[in-house]
Hints:
single chain, alpha+beta, 5-stranded mixed β-sheet
Amino acid sequence: MRPSADELEPFLHTLCEAAARETLPRFRAPVAITNKLAEAGDFDPVTLADQNGERAIRDIIGEHFPDHGIVGEEHGITLPNAECRWIIDPIDGTRAFISGLPLWGTLIGFSHEGNLVAGVMDQPFTRERYWTVGDGSFEQVGDNKARAINTSGVTALGQATLMTTSPHLLLGQEDAGYFKLEQAVKMFRYGCDCYAYAMVAAGHIDLVVESGLNIYDIAALVPLIEQAGGVVTDWQGRPLHYSGGAGGKMQVIAAANTALHEQALAVLQG
């Protein structure tokens, strides 16, 4: 059964606080790092903060909603055909985490019948939290009261700020369209992972363009940006949803509004 918005909102906060008890004490502290892609000659780090953070989230979901499915980066998939599913990335931005940079966050998304309807991005070190349960998006910073947020009013590509985690993550010939987009915007920056998407929702950044994402990298951020007034699709302009399973690698463009989204798509598609 789908929880109501009144149930979802405090529950998301509870999940964030449980994850933070595992992640925050290990940030900027000695921590063992495992390379998940060592055999392939690549580098994909994971730490006890990732693993224990996800386990803490899973335990609480399992206790309160045993019939809900869970998709997590570290511990796989349970009940893949459930009507309601939670999609978890305990630390999005593990490279930043192990480098001592506060540009990481805990992502928890919620889907109902494949539609991404609620989500949260929590950064416990800076005490920033951004969330939606389907009726507007909100932020809380430190001890300040929660407030509604909206995407920016920038509608001209030439006035826009663009971000991507790294152009090295683009696949095949995707970089050609992306670098054309860099030339068309006012300013571009690299890094930030999930934090950049939260800044789109809060109106500080206008565009994020990425490729090679997994569903747990983006599920929580789609409703956050959409409920703040933005648009999130793939590079063909198709809405993002979760149909079950591990899914494939995804192209993503997140824009502050429809006008900016259309201009950026036109450049990416040549």
